[in-house]
Amino acid sequence: MAIVGGGPAGSTCAAFCAAAGLRTLVLEREKFPREKVCGDCINPACWPVLEKLELAEQIRNSPHGVLDAVEFIAIGGQKLRVDLPSGANSEIAIKRSLFDHLLLNRAGTLGAEIREEATLIALDRTAARDWKIDIVRETFAARVVVGADGRNSTVARLRNLLPRPERERVSLQAHVPLPKGFGNRIVLRFLPEGYSGQAPVNDRELNLCLVGTPPTISSLRAWAEQQFKLPANQPWRTITPLTRAPISAAHENLFFIGDAARVVEPFTGEGIYYALRSGELAANAIIKILRDEDRQPIVREFVRAHRAMYRGRLWVNRLARAAVLSPKIASRLLKVARLSPAIMGFLTRQIVGRSD
Fold first, then answer.
1. How far apart are CA 88 and CA 81, in angstroms?
2. How far is CA 345 from CA 69, 105, 118, in A?
3. Run of H or E including 247
4. Cα–Cα distance measured from residue 153 to residue 136, given in angstroms and rounded to the nearest whole number
5. pLDDT digits (tens, 9 = 90+) for 277-336
6. Residue 239's closest CA among 294, 170, 292, 308?
7. Which neighbouring-strand residues pair with 73?
8. pTM, rounded to two decimals
């Protein structure tokens, strides 16, 4: 089997498949470690998968930020603080360059063949209904292919499955010096131009995210430069699209996982959970298929479980989108929530609660 993409979804799928004894190939376009636009937050729902991968302790022992609370700040400056769960399985923030590298190395340790700097250029069916996979100067064959190559999935594009993006929002992200006294918290700050997400990823660096629209993103950047005393030449990473219609997660011996299947807001901590869990679900299905078990009920169960994983949680994406497109309305809702902290507590628990 072959997995295109070595991020959290692809590495997780590869690790479980390799551990089960399957010949597993991972094709990754980049050279790890590499940075990735993300909020860098690992929510508690991720820990059960990381425990199964025997990575949880290594991640806890790596540089990271401890997150005790979420602080919401309205346009007018009103604040609402909601405590997060504490203990071994609490929410943390860790740089994606480190987190993703640990996951990919784990897949390799378990027996997956890792090919970095491998760009997919063609994906075709053979007469035997297997897959012919072409990268630059090399060709592979596989019974099953997994698209784990992100929101602009090359696998989906080559198979004419990639939906048109929606481009109403723009995002910027950088790691900047951690302000003195920032504390162990996530900050979600509503601004007239959009919103900002902030979380400490270690004792020196802050993950700073900005989300706005094309006409407002330069104003957001100017706000960040002044607020955090950043130089005018501060480097920023960006991604697009922030919104895209989902792709069916299962086709004939072709699976999509993580952002390749469904794009979620990258700054809420949700995306990492969906990546890890969808990778695990796909691996469970593929292991059975390649052991020649009845394919149709296996695929139906995978699709059912994949849909159930998102059920009741995607309101986070809709809320974040509304916060950018209507930040004043979002601030008004925050003021209402301040009068009823139970409301915001409920919303926060939905984000950080276990979902396995």
1. 21
2. 11, 37, 44
3. none
4. 17
5. 999 999 999 999 999 889 999 999 999 999 998 876 666 566 666 665 676 766 666 666
6. 170
7. 79, 189
8. 0.91
Q: Is 93 helix (H, G, I), strand (E, B) or coil?
A: strand
Q: State the Rg of the chain over Cα.
A: 20
Tell me how far apart the alpha carbons of residues 245 and 74 are, in angstroms, rounded to a whole number: 30
Residue 165 pairs in a beta bridge with: 244
Helix, strand, or coil here: 292? coil
- Cα 234–chain centre separation: 24
Q: DSSP assignment, residue 235?
A: -
The DSSP H or E segment spanning 83 is strand 79-83
Q: What's the CA dihedral at 75, 352, 13, 150 to 10 degrees?
A: -10
Task: Give the angle 215-219-221 at the CA atoms, nearest 5°.
Answer: 115
In this structure, the number of other CB atoms found within 10 A of the CB of residue 343 comes to 15
Chain length of the chain: 356
Tokens describing residue 120: 């997919």
Is 39:207 a contact under the CB 8 Å cutoff? Answer: yes
